[in-house]
């Protein structure tokens, strides 16, 4: 039985366990004020091509999202996201729990469009009772999105343009950023992300680490007191070096890019097999998440050897399922899945 | 240079790293719905002598405190704690951040007393404008306390009596619970804790784990929807089995009790040396945290070979410092510290 | 120039000012614990045909909405409403500000439908990751709605059925309740409202009072500690008798019903004139708010003698405007408006 | 029976009811965007001697306090006040409810001292784990205080000095400001208050109005978006002109100062009688609230003809009671009370 249901079902890349082992006998300063956090930050900054950013290591995605957004916004302001955005539909109202409203726009293939964003901003700006509504002040987007699609550079530029014209912040959820960077056709690199986002995070949990997200704060206005917000929101790990060390291991020599790219390639192999069989992708993407519509017979057969996730139904009533590859995906597992697809 | 400044400056007990290594190649269900969380829970329940409790694994103490308390209370209710309580003075207002007020009582040796609790409850009950004040509804206490003191069974019983008389919940922060259980003279075991508290947690971060706290919910009324509160408060680890596995490792064969007891014994050796030198303990306790008043000369000498924490000043103007032992404390380091104390 | 832009642009029914005058020399207990609040409650209960409800007098609608809802819900729960619901679009995120998420359903003529509600509940119930989403627990609806439409008894029964089947609370915002009760064709009376809603409020601000909303709590589970929630949310008026007195004046002899019904009748006269001219109503309703599509010429002419509100555009690009009648509408003003409509 | 229990037990100064009557037939713009709010602001600004402030009219004190403070602070910041401060002890945790922590200092005669404030700030500034505690960022004080004492100019200057040295905001709760301004020996006028406070409010509810508080925002940084915060916190009255009109009536010709001064003078007459009888004042003050220690016999006799408030016990076990005069206090009632005191 092969598990494809998600990309966080295995521990960590062996190099990370090794690093934990090698440092286990040493004592470090607490709460992220240690040398590994410094080294991890430096290793990431090298890929950003700049040192004028603050990097903080948090534990998980939900936590990172609501901590950063609630640090950035005032009570009368709100975050804009696609209706399928993770903060809107999969975080148990965490952002509202700390007092902030989300304004949602219809997504296109899982992505927020500049047009939809523009409409939300325009509605606010043209209102003559602004004090009765919240001020859209921050754009949240995830790339890859919840549907595995990646924002093209042109799409990010169009969104950024709206942000600049209207004084909104841009925050990018990169829980699966590695898989976006490694995707075929992707034209965005870390430097570009850092040049566009006021803050973004580089996901570790789903990309080789045991756990951890590296939040990069680019906008100076968001930097001060962020560690207080981390502590207040339960996001400051006592043994913070465990996070720094993991990101150092992933970024010192580019391991992060290597393993996520490989996962994308394996996903492409599976996608090719699906396409060849005429199985619809919904939507098509080039990252590690594959969404496909299966008929009942196909699903039944594949379920004999593979665990995958149910995602609802397509307009024709066929089941949408998700297969994820990840940094830990074994090539022989992919071979097996492809063989089973070909046999359909 | 030996580090005594805190009890969370080293990774994890070797058995834990070994367990991570051995399971790293296997895939597990996410979000704590895996077999290791089950096994970890069962291992703990064995020591509780009961199975009718819910056990959840969270990442850190602050998070566990505010998640449980905000899950338990309604907006018009408040938590009562000693003025030096961790939720009041070291969590950046995390509980207030999610909307709840703390009522504080003067501590005695770091502990809340039943008398002080009674006074707070009585003030509420005798008020004829109750709707203008918050209802004290939950008692928070940490044992060992922030000053390393342990609540005696009689003290807990007196506090519980107040709770029962006045319909308050009792929540015990056990970030250092292991060191309390292992302390000389302690008359409280896990079964007793579970018989008194509506909820409590067994600290892992400071007691041998890489990170993690095992929250035990005893009161049925607090059980439902707790996983939603965990997610909402950023406390649900994607790879939840990493927590379950660690607690399984610590509790399957009693390792937790063994390593924390040993740390207490090492602390007792240091305390004996201090007492012999006439150095005041403030307050005296039998757990892994040693608070001592040093004069300038003593501090200077000890600082040459040891890192310890500054905690303020005693009434005579001498510096109060903290030495912590932990599960990772090396006996030879203790020997060295004792030798240096004896040389003062 | 006649003002039709809203229904809260004049002080109070003369009987209310008279009552204020007559009581001004007497001293009363504070915070709503006075005889006028008692009398106001009794007067309302007479029309409810029951005494087993709690009635609280708050100052305004937004305040009443978020105070009741946040009193009723737990952090992991959410309120369901139509996408145009007042709590969603006109209260500056007040409900989110106190920590709660809103789930929205597409409205039909400004109203929530049982079908749309069912879909939201079904999505939650069928989810196998419930802890990642909020639990829909309370239905908010306003009747008359923001578009002046009134829920028929059958519509309320269908919504109530969903609530009962799925353990949701039903809360009705009655900021304009009087205009709903008095509307032609309305088949819901106060007894029916009280038999269906767990809580609802009878609007005073827009229906003859200087200010004030009478919140009726029917469900016993919501009654306790509500005054604490009022105080905590800034909704407890020091001189509470000012509210009780106003509602006593409105309900002692049915003045409330009389003046709102008259306003509906005046609105019907205006609607008739619009219909006769072929001016579309959008949507049609029988309460005090008239929404009509005007072309540029029509708008220009009417604007010469009348102030009305801009509400956006209809699909054909014509401007949607709102005319409100109210308890204070003068018949001669209506005559003038009708004459101007007829002249178009 | 005469009522002395509080200063908000009667309606409004007759001039206010008259103004309501005279404007009742006119229609006004909603939400405070009307001419009376403009006129009320201008009338107040005349006494401030400046026009560069924003004035907003809110309904009550609790609402004004938490709305302003939560508008001003970020989540990691806290408000400092005396332990007996109204926001700490009489507002049902309203400030915590919207996410903010209060740091309390021991009061002296109901007042915060610059020394106690300094100690709180110093503790923060000297901390080397600042991210684990909240940043003291705003000073809240009420003048007159909850014990009727007034801050001398020198006391306010000393507190302001601390604020300026450490970048804290100063917010003054003036629920009873009129009684402070009119008190014998007071050396602070409205111009001085406006020169020291970043924001403060002029109480109407207890000083002649039916209800309402005039919030003066002096600091430019606090001005923007405040109306959104008002709406979000339920503090924007639909018929806002009712508030503006009342403050216009009170300030157009100085009525506010006249009626509160007279109340202070009546209180002084009562205090003189108490002192003559050797009845201790606790503490002594010169405003409209009189706190006195009565023995059982004295209390019994006075209770025959007067209603007053119980406030607890003095160190000798005598009951502390409160008598309030107000703008509505009748001179003959004062004569009666004095006669009864003299008869003791």
Key descriptive features of the protein:
344 residues; alpha/beta; seven-stranded mixed β-sheet; three-stranded antiparallel β-sheet; 14 helices; 12 strands; 42% helix
Number of helices of chain A: 14
Which structural class should the secondary elements of chain A be placed in? alpha/beta
Helix content of chain A: 40-55%
What gap, in angstroms, lies between the N and C termini of chain A? Answer: 18 Å
The spatial strand order of the largest sheet of chain A comes to 2-8-7-6-5-3-4
Strand content of chain A: 15-25%
Form type of chain A? globular
Largest interface (CB within 8 Å) is between: A-B, 48 and 48 residues
Based on the structure, what is the oligomeric state of the protein chains? Answer: homotetramer
Count of β-strands of chain A: 12
Mean pLDDT of chain A: 97
Low-pLDDT residue intervals, each spanning 5 or more residues of chain A:
none
Characterize the main sheet of chain A: 7 strands, mixed
Topology as H/E string of chain A? EHHEHEHHEHEHEHHEEHHHEHEEEH
Query: Could you tell me the radius of gyration of chain A in angstroms?
Result: 20 Å
């Amino acid at each position: 039985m092969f598990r494809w249901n998600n990309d966080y079902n295995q521990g960590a890349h062996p190099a990370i366990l090794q690093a934990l082992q090698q440092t286990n006998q040493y004592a470090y300063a607490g709460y992220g004020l240690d040398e590994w956090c410094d080294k991890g930050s430096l290793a990431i900054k090298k890929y950003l091509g700049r040192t004028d950013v603050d990097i903080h290591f948090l534990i998980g995605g939900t936590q990172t999202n609501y901590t950063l957004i609630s640090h950035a916004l005032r009570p009368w302001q709100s975050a804009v996201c696609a209706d399928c955005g993770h903060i809107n539909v999969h975080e148990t109202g965490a952002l509202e729990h700390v007092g902030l409203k989300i304004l949602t726009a219809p997504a296109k293939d899982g992505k927020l469009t500049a047009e939809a964003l523009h409409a939300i901003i325009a509605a606010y700006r043209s209102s003559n009772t602004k004090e009765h509504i919240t001020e859209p002040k921050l754009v949240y987007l995830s790339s890859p999105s919840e549907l595995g699609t990646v924002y093209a550079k042109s799409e990010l530029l169009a969104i950024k343009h709206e942000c600049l014209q209207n004084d909104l912040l841009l925050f990018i959820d990169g829980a699966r950023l590695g898989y976006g960077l490694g995707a075929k056709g992707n034209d965005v690199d870390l430097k570009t992300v850092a040049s566009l986002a006021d803050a973004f995070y580089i996901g570790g949990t789903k990309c080789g680490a045991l756990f951890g997200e590296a939040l990069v704060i680019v906008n100076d206005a968001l930097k001060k007191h962020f560690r207080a917000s981390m502590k207040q929101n339960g996001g400051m790990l006592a043994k913070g070096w465990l996070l720094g060390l993991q990101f150092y291991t992933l970024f010192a020599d580019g391991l992060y890019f290597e393993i996520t790219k490989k996962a994308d390639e394996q996903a492409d192999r599976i996608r090719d097999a699906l396409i060849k069989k005429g199985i619809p992708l919904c939507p098509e993407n080039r990252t590690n998440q594959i969404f496909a519509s299966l008929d009942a017979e196909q699903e039944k057969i594949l379920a004999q050897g593979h665990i995958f996730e149910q995602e609802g139904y397509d307009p024709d009533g066929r089941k949408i399922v998700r297969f994820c590859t990840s940094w830990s995906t074994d090539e022989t597992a992919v071979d097996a899945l492809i063989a089973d697809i070909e046999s359909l």
